[in-house]
Design goal:
Blueprint (H helix, E strand, L loop, with lengths): L5 H10 L5 E6 L11 E7 L5 H9 L17 E6 L4 E5 L10 H17 L3 E9 L6 H13 L3 E6 L6 H15 L10 E2 L8 H10 L3
Parallel strand pairs: 2-4, 2-5, 5-6, 6-7
Antiparallel strand pairs: 1-3, 3-4
Helix pairs in contact: 1-6
Length: about 210
């Protein structure tokens, strides 16, 4: 993970210092709101800790619901901050949702339509459990993002649950896995929602997309 300048971290802090509000959930492309100046999306397996990360990122306990039942997110959920200057988009989790193949195919169609149809979607943060690293089901999502030509960045979650040597190893393995992927952002952010690790850096990344 790269070193961030104090000015970058402060800009990120200020961006997230105000209220973050739930705007809407879209189950169909026709329900998507007008484009925001900056949109960033969050994707990951259904038990990767996406809701916990969004809560930690925004400093709220309830901005994104956490659940013991993986795969609850069925919509593209929009959260806005900075008076609508930036939107955070919580994408449906993949991998463990109890759903029919027909429904899964419909979700995939919606997600691809979203990825290809939002010019202001600056980046997708793909969350990977640091205890397990990139799995075949994650590679399917990375392939989809490469196909859609949407910039994405790996965010490793639950880093407090492994030792430093394991963190170093998963960072190195992640770097190797994405090295030749055309849409992959080269830097990986390692986080812990429980400890707050990586949140200032993630905020700085998002703030930097405002130009």
């Amino acid at each position: 993970m790269r070193e961030y300048e104090p000015e970058e971290l402060e800009r990120g802090r200020l961006l997230f210092a105000g209220q973050t509000e739930f705007r809407m959930g879209a189950a169909r492309l026709s329900q998507l709101p007008p484009e925001y100046p900056v949109e960033v999306a969050f994707a990951g397996r259904s038990n990767v800790g996406k809701s916990s990360l969004l809560n930690a990122l925004t400093g709220r306990k309830d901005i994104a619901r956490t659940s013991n039942t993986p795969g609850r997110t069925r919509e593209l959920n929009y959260f806005e901050l900075a008076d609508g200057a930036v939107a955070l988009v919580d994408m449906p989790g993949y991998g463990y949702a109890r759903a029919t193949k027909t429904l899964v195919k419909a979700w995939q169609s919606i997600i691809m339509g979203y990825l290809q149809g939002r010019p202001n979607l600056r980046r997708v943060f793909v969350l990977i459990d640091s205890r397990h690293g990139i799995k075949p089901i994650d590679l399917e999502t990375l392939d989809q993002l490469d196909e859609a030509a949407v910039s994405y960045q790996i965010v490793l979650t639950k880093a407090d649950k492994i030792k430093q040597a394991e963190r170093d190893a998963v960072l190195a393995a992640t770097a190797r896995a994405i090295a030749k992927r055309p849409a992959a952002f080269p830097d990986t952010i390692i986080t812990s929602s429980a400890k707050g690790w990586g949140m200032p850096e993630l905020r700085a990344e998002i703030a930097g997309m405002q130009g």
